[in-house]
Amino acid sequence: MSVTEAAVELAAYLLARAGLPGLFLLAVAELLVAPIPGEAVFALAGFLSSRGAMGLAEAVLVGTLGNLAGALIEYWLGLRVARPALLKLGKYLMIGERDLEAAEEFFRRRGALAAFLGRFVPGVRSLMGFPAGMARMNPAVFAAATFSGSLPWNAAFALAGYALGEKWSEVLRYSSYLDLAGAAALALAAIYLAAKLIKRRRS
Question: Which helix (H) or strand (E) holds 131?
Answer without folding.
Answer: helix 129-134
